[in-house]
Write a structure and sequence with these properties.
With about 300 residues, the protein is of the alpha/beta class. It folds into 2 domains: about 10-170, Rossmann fold (3-Layer(aba) Sandwich); about 175-295, N-(1-d-carboxylethyl)-l-norvaline Dehydrogenase, domain 2 (Orthogonal Bundle). The chain contains 14 helices and 9 strands. Strands 1, 2, 3, 4, 5, 6, 7, 8 and 9 form a 9-stranded mixed beta sheet that branches. The chain is globular, with a radius of gyration of 20 Å. About 45% of the residues are buried. The mean pLDDT is about 95.
Length: about 300
């Protein structure tokens, strides 16, 4: 997409914690953005900032060149794509559809095939970086699908992300996202265990974070969330229930390919425990509270 070519119009379906700041960054980059969401509040909010609200996914697809979806789970994406008032019903031959949700690679591949049969060009492009990355426009974007199409829409991705990588054919983006979610989940579990052990043994928890971040144990997860974990600030940037869903996708994919994921299975059950305890809408860093429950001790308690 060269500078001499007309800037494409964009549609965003799904205006949650991630979708809203992504729309703002697209508008900041000069794109006209049409929006749709199941509830009206976010559409009204973005409409006041210059976005164009419409009443269905179909209306988005009829109006724009590039449709982006940012939705919670596979069934949500399937419904938005395949419904009577869905994206595929409104799109035309040559339309571009980019699913930036985190869904099953199996579902992603099926949607690619359906889109292609209608002459619709599609990419799967899940993201990492959470709400902070969405707000800052520094998301990591892993893209599956046709390499030429990826190159064509790369300026659109650049408005929302910093690390943008074409990782392979259709559904490869979702496969890499599943790998990403494994590492992030295990990092949160490891940090939680280290904090509870060290703090219960009498070490100031923030000093544990400071030291670990200066050595081989340093992680981006700890850099961004270490202090808020110590403070028990679990305001959601990415919710427990969504990460639990993502680990389900990883385990399902691993089963299909015959790959054992023993540590992932353990953390999957930790998330299940948090959901059973009514903590599913907390930030995924609330894994700390699960480890505290096991230890019958909470950071901040007297030793």
């Amino acid at each position: 997409m060269s500078a001499s070519e007309q800037r494409p119009t964009i549609g965003m379906i799904g205006l949650g914690i991630m979708g809203r700041p992504m729309v703002r960054n697209l508008m900041k980059a000069g794109y006209s953005v049409t929006v749709h969401n199941r509830s009206a509040g976010p559409m009204e909010e973005l409409g006041a900032e210059g976005a164009i609200p419409v009443d269905s996914p179909r209306a988005v697809a009829e109006k724009v060149d590039v449709v982006i979806t940012m939705l919670p789970d596979s069934p949500d994406v399937e419904a938005v794509m395949r419904g009577e008032n869905g994206v595929f019903a409104g799109a035309h031959a040559g339309s571009i559809v980019i699913d930036m949700s985190t869904i099953s690679p199996i579902v992603a591949k099926a949607l690619h095939e359906e889109a292609s049969a209608q002459g619709i060009r599609m990419l799967d492009a899940p993201v990492s970086g959470g709400d902070r990355g969405a707000i800052a426009g520094t998301l990591s974007i892993m893209v599956g699908g046709d390499a030429e199409l990826f190159a064509e829409v790369n300026p659109v991705f650049a408005a929302m992300g910093k690390t943008i990588v074409h990782v392979g054919p259709a559904s490869a983006g979702q496969t890499v996202k599943a790998c990403n979610q494994i590492v992030v989940a295990l990092a949160y579990q490891a940090i939680s265990e280290a904090l509870v052990l060290g703090a219960k043994a009498g070490v100031e928890p923030q000093k544990i974070i400071d030291v670990l971040n200066g050595g081989l144990a340093a992680t981006r997860v700890m850099e961004l969330r270490g202090a808020s974990m110590v403070a028990h600030n679990f305001t959601p940037g990415f919710r427990v229930r969504l990460h639990h869903k993502d680990l389900g996708i990883a385990l399902e994919t691993a089963k299909a390919y015959g790959v054992p994921l023993p540590a992932t299975a353990v953390v999957d059950q930790a998330f299940a425990s948090l959901r059973a305890a009514g903590r599913e809408d907390l930030d995924h860093s609330a894994l700390l509270s699960y480890v505290e429950d096991l230890a019958h001790w909470k950071i901040g308690d007297e030793v």
